[in-house]
Amino acid sequence: MPRYIILIGLILSLSIASFSAGLVAAPNYSASQVEAQQAIETAQTTINDAFGQITQADLAGADISDLVSALNLAISDLDLARAAFSASEYASTTLLAESAQNAAEAVLNEAQTRVTVALTNSIIQVLLILVVILAVVVFTYLLITRWRKHKQQQTRTLLRMEIHLPREEERDE
Hints:
Layout: H1 2-60, H2 65-86, H3 90-160, H4 167-172
């Protein structure tokens, strides 16, 4: 009987060992699949954020044509990553998704910079316009007050004048 118990124990331990080895191998495979899926999701989120920043940069008046081209390349990499994921090439999926994410992050950072520059330029333009308007108002005010003073001076000079008859007419009287 001890042999029978030993054999059953051995068979059970081998079965458990092979089953646990299968369980260990399955999570590794699943982990790479999960990692690839997360890389795709992260890249998609970054691309969406970059698109939002590009839109803000465009609304702020910045030139975005090169940013759109770079974002399109990131989207192309993400499409390739999805195709690799469908083909169960999880290592390629992760690399392509990370490439797409890096490109989208570069676009995002550049778009943020361009938004800041465009907003700064528009603030400077508004301030410049206000300064010009203020200068025109002050100049016009000074010009009008100077003209009024000149008119008043002319009126005073005219009122101070004495009327003299010509000398010949004075003799006749």
